[in-house]
Here is the input.
Amino acid sequence: MRIDLKKSFVTGIFVTVPLILSIGILVWFFQKVDGFFSPPIDGIVRAIFPGTTHIPGTGFLTGLLIILLVGLFARNVVGARILAGLDWLIDRIPGYRTVHTTIKQLTNAFSPESSRSFRQVLLVEYPIEGTYALGFRTGTVEKKGKPLAVVFVPTNNLYLGEVLFIPEEKTHVLDMSVEQGVKILVSGGIAAPRTFDRPEEGA
Here is the structure.
């Protein structure tokens, strides 16, 4: 009975701690976003309905609505041109160009609609022979007529890593999405499947 209680307690810890942390992160994120957008919304509401106090969640919903509208705006021709012009202006700011360009390239890498996003999840022999690392194909180049896969291998966290140029025959394409590959890295390998399969031919 004592052993069963001990196992149940340990199991409870492993179930409860991730749940509490997840809820805590969501609450923190909600409060930060709500606190950022709620002041102007509260001002508008008070102007229309004097005496009204802060309504929790209005700032958060406003933030989500703004992100949605920007996304819809960016997907049409006019919006894309305006945003491209805005990027051009930002790139002209001294000292800020490098930061802006780097952040934009990193975020675009995870966008499924970007032509320069991560394209495949690969398993490559790195950093020494006999050991393998998970990487993302970002493109293909040639060296003396020989194709080389351009592979980004995260080494510290998702946004820091090494760029490798590896012969195509030494790469192992995995049958998984970029999202699944990211999940494996973020989870520290816990989310890795039991077997790594190659995609079926013609798939």
